[in-house]
Design brief:
Elements: H1 5-13, H2 43-53, E1 64-70, E2 79-85, H3 89-96, E3 103-109, E4 115-121, E5 124-133, E6 136-145, H4 167-176, E7 189-194, E8 203-209, H5 213-220, E9 227-233, E10 240-246, E11 249-258, E12 261-270, E13 296-297, E14 311-315, E15 342-348, H6 358-368, H7 378-385, E16 393-396, H8 407-412, H9 422-434, E17 453-458, E18 471-474, E19 494-499, H10 519-529, H11 560-565, E20 571-575, E21 580-586, H12 588-591, E22 595-597, E23 610-617, E24 634-641, E25 644-649, E26 652-657, E27 676-679, E28 707-714, E29 718-725
Parallel strand pairs: 15-16, 15-17, 17-19, 20-22
Antiparallel strand pairs: 1-2, 2-6, 3-4, 4-5, 5-6, 7-8, 8-12, 9-10, 10-11, 11-12, 13-25, 14-20, 18-19, 21-29, 22-23, 23-24, 24-27, 25-26, 28-29
Length: about 725
């Protein structure tokens, strides 16, 4: 059975098309279907605050906000003004409790009868007040640096200019439209969903305030890659609308002035979700287990379930949406993580590469297969890490495959559509050749018509460009009809590409022929199984795991979350005690024993929500013999935010983990919350010793974790920890 490439491309880019198209005729829609909630400053804004104030300050979640600089007055030195619209007085009171590190000093009432609350933190002074204008609730927050050295002028004109969508907004476009439109730089904007029963089906509305007509005209030129469908005039208001289309996306936009302000309104919708009847816009999807925004599924507001003796027994297999990595959209047709997956290792010997012989293949067999003479092979490592639940069936070809062309040819090669690169085209070349002499279907252990795992080890020197580095990537090479090339009834879904010389890595050098360093192969095979990178892939300086994970930059065992994700640990204990509970934790390397802490828990989401994992770390098993992360045993705590993202494509619904460990300043891949990070002691250490207590900890919504713990004992095989409700 052939497999279409389009499904693979969908799961690679997280494409979701939910929206529809009718040409607008009349005033702007006035009944909102959804209001997108902003939950964080943009990375650029955080940088601006840090540059001029030395730090940022807690964000107030809201439906519409502006952040701008202001110049000195008789009362203030220059600083920043955050103004939100749509919050309630109760949300304002909650926000004041989140000003950790700020001390309240006074309050006063101004001439407009607004009460202002004053806080200080070092040299920072914050004034904040809540008031109403018409039907809107406004919250204003002024933050300034009290240097005593005169005013600071943050930006020319004292106004911050938005230059790109926030990551939240990008996710909103990806979820409901399936594409993003050009951004219009501005000083104030809002994006929201809309619904108008007569003229529009559902889509997104982008409104800016303060742009000039010249800026609007310049913005129109950014649609040069779209088809210009012409203009029309709104009969009610006389506004001139411009209409553009690109594939299935329709964009209508106009410029107008009102009450002395200038506005740009942009409406975006997708033709793919137009109701068959043509007159019913339907409803946007809702998300079980979370809020009504329908993009990210969370356990927010779920509370904790009831348990016995302060403990709720978690079974991740009870999850209704995603039980483990096999149920995730991006992992469809991936390598099995239980049983005996078939691994095909192909030595690739380019004619212009280094001269490697049969003895090097012998070493590859030791590196990937079962052996007892060297440090961990890939098979040995994963047999231990999975607690014996996975035993790789490795086949290393006994000859170097010599490609038809030199490496420089494949390095520059792409297919006619520009979708596949030389490594993918070479993979197809190799499979076509091998199918003439062997049955490739034997490498499909689960019968899904996809080879379980393909590893290509080349004879090229290691370099910083992709072709000379190590990675796992999807196979996107397909025929003109979008089908994968198929041999012996099977296709290749993804593959590992790496140099032989990673095996010789020793203290930053790749020339030690006596070395046996399998870390790179083990790391990349973790991706084959469905594990993410836990280092900052944007190189922006974010270090949520500090290198301490095999999916970061050290060897050692996989984390508890990774084992939840791969289905190797299916049970845990969630603390739900009203007062306290004392629990014993066995050595994690023995059987994967864990305890979970959380403010909220949704059994339907299983391992894919926000929580904390407590484990007893020891220098045993995969952490022994100098391979471990830490120099002593103790309690280790992980913070997980594995919330799911819902995708709908061609009528099918898929779920993938939303967050990763890429810094949010990476605008292509960054998310505002880390997938996995350490919680450290009050001294900044990663290990909690006897007597250590979990410090005050906040979840990604800014709420205090409702439990703390104290380590009461550590033995050779177990730890005793007392958990107490705050």
């Amino acid at each position: 059975m052939k497999k279409l490439l389009t499904l693979l491309l969908f799961v690679m880019i997280g494409l979701s098309l939910v929206g529809c198209s009718l040409t607008p005729d009349g005033p702007a829609p006035t009944v909102p279907l959804i209001n997108h909630t902003y939950t964080s400053f943009t990375p650029a804004e955080k940088g601006l605050l840090t540059q001029y104030l030395g730090t940022d300050f807690p964000f107030l979640p809201n439906d519409h906000y502006t952040l701008e600089g202001y110049t000195a007055t008789d009362d203030y030195e220059a600083g920043f003004h955050l103004r939100t619209v749509g919050n309630t007085k109760a949300e304002f009171e909650t926000y004041k409790t989140r000003l950790q590190g700020f001390s309240p000093v006074s309050s006063y009432t101004d001439d407009a009868d607004v009460t202002w609350f004053c806080y200080v933190k070092g040299n920072l002074i914050m004034d904040l007040g809540c008031y109403t204008i018409g039907s809107d609730t406004i919250i204003s927050i002024y933050v300034r640096l009290n240097t005593g050295n005169g005013p600071i002028n943050p930006t020319p004109g004292s106004t911050y200019t938005y230059t790109d969508w926030t990551n939240d907004d990008k996710a909103l476009f990806d979820q409901y439209i399936g594409a993003r439109i050009p951004f219009l730089p501005n000083n104030e904007y809002a994006i929201e969903g809309y619904y108008e029963e007569y003229d529009f089906e559902h889509g997104l509305c982008f409104i800016t305030v303060g742009n000039t007509k010249a800026e609007f005209d310049a913005y129109l030129t950014k649609y040069d890659s779209y088809t210009n469908e012409g203009t029309y005039t709104d009969e009610t208001y006389g506004d001139l609308w411009y209409c553009f289309t690109k594939n299935d996306v329709v964009v209508d936009l106009t410029y107008y002035t009102e009450d002395g302000y200038s506005y740009v309104s942009v409406y975006v919708y997708s033709a793919l979700s137009k109701d068959p009847d043509g007159d019913d816009p339907g409803t946007l999807p809702t998300q079980p287990g979370g809020s009504a925004n329908a993009d990210v599924l969370t356990n927010d507001g779920k509370g904790l379930p009831n348990g016995s003796n302060g403990i709720y027994n978690v079974n991740f297999k009870d999850a209704t949406l995603v039980k483990d990595v096999h149920d995730q959209g991006y992992y469809l047709d991936g390598c099995p993580t239980i049983g005996a997956p078939a691994v095909l290792v192909i030595p690739v010997g380019f004619s212009d590469g280094q001269k490697l012989t049969a003895s090097h293949i012998d070493k590859l067999e030791l590196a990937f297969g079962e052996n007892g003479d060297y440090d961990y092979s890939v098979d040995n490592f994963y047999k231990i890490s999975s607690y014996g639940q996975m035993d790789l069936d490795v086949t290393v070809l006994d000859e170097w495959y010599v490609p038809a062309q030199k490496s420089t040819y494949y390095e520059k090669l792409t297919d006619s559509e520009g979708n596949a690169n030389g490594d993918q085209i070479l993979l197809d070349e190799i499979l076509a050749s091998l199918s003439k002499t062997m049955d490739l279907s034997k490498f499909d252990s689960d019968g899904n018509k996809v080879i379980d795992a393909v590893v290509m080890i080349n004879n090229l020197e290691i370099g910083e460009d992709n072709f000379h580095w190590a990675y796992r990537y999807w196979n996107t090479y397909a025929d003109s009809d979008g089908y994968f090339y198929e041999y012996d009834g099977v296709t290749a879904n993804d593959f590992v590409w790496a140099s032989y010389y990673f095996l010789q890595e020793d203290n930053g050098s790749y020339s030690n022929s006596n070395a046996f360093n399998t870390y790179t192969y083990i790391h990349e095979f973790g991706h084959v199984l469905g594990a993410d990178d836990y280092y900052d892939t944007s190189d922006a300086g974010n270090h949520p795991m500090d290198g301490y994970d095999v999916m970061d930059s050290m060897l050692g065992d996989h984390s508890a979350y990774t084992k939840f994700n791969l289905g190797w640990i299916t049970q845990s204990r969630l603390v739900v005690a009203n007062n306290s509970a004392t629990l014993t934790l066995e050595d994690f390397s023995k059987n994967g024993d864990t305890v979970i802490l959380a403010n909220n828990w949704d059994p339907a989401l299983g391992a894919y929500q926000e929580y904390y994992i407590v484990v007893y770390y020891t220098n045993k098993g995969l952490n022994a013999n100098g391979n471990g992360y830490f120099d002593r045993s103790g309690i280790v705590v992980y913070h997980v935010n594995a919330s799911l993202f819902k995708d709908v494509y061609e009528g099918e619904t898929y779920y993938d983990v939303y967050n990763n460990n890429t810094d949010a300043s990476d605008t292509q891949y960054g998310t505002k919350d880390n997938l996995l990070e350490f919680v450290t002691t009050s001294d900044g250490d990663h290990i909690f010793d006897v007597g250590d207590t979990l410090p005050l900890t906040y979840d990604d919504s800014g709420n205090k974790l409702g439990y703390t713990f104290t380590v009461t004992s550590l033995t050779d095989s177990a730890a005793t920890v007392t958990f107490t409700k705050r």
